[in-house]
Amino acid sequence: MARTVHCQHLNKSADGLDFQLYPGELGKRIFDNIGKEAWGLWQKKQTMLINEKKLNMMNVDDRKFLEEQMTNFLFEGKDVEIEGYVPPAEDE
């Protein structure tokens, strides 16, 4: 049976993550308050950030920047801004 959480990002009940994917207190907060769907949305944004900003995960400053962006996206409702990216237009 899937674990259910009240996802803070989506503001609804959602399937919870299967295990803690991020270390420390922030990882516990994500595990307790973020659903699989929201985590998937973050992973897409994270990949775009790493690629477009050429982040190096061996660099402490780059990891700190990415963690700040993750917190802003998942818990504060701030979208990730990526220079030059224009979302595809929705067909009407």
Describe the model.
The chain is mainly alpha-helical and 92 residues long. It has one domain (4-75): Fe(II) trafficking protein YggX (YggX-like), CATH 1.10.3880.10. It has three helices and two strands, in the order ββααα. Strands 1-2 form a two-stranded antiparallel ribbon. Strand 1 and strand 2 (12-15) form a beta hairpin. Helix 2 packs antiparallel against helix 3. The termini are far apart. The mean pLDDT is 92.
Name a few traits of the molecule:
Probable Fe(2+)-trafficking protein, 3 helices, globular, 2 strands, YggX-like, two-stranded antiparallel sheet, mainly alpha, Fe_traffick_prot_YggX_sf, 92 residues, iron
In short:
With 92 residues, this protein is mostly helical.
Radius of gyration equals 14 Å
By CATH reckoning, the class would read: Mainly Alpha
Q: State mean pLDDT (0 to 100 scale).
A: 92
Question: In one word, what is the shape?
Answer: globular
- Beta fraction: 5-15%
Distance between the termini: 38 Å
Kindly report the name of the CATH homologous superfamily.
Fe(II) trafficking protein YggX
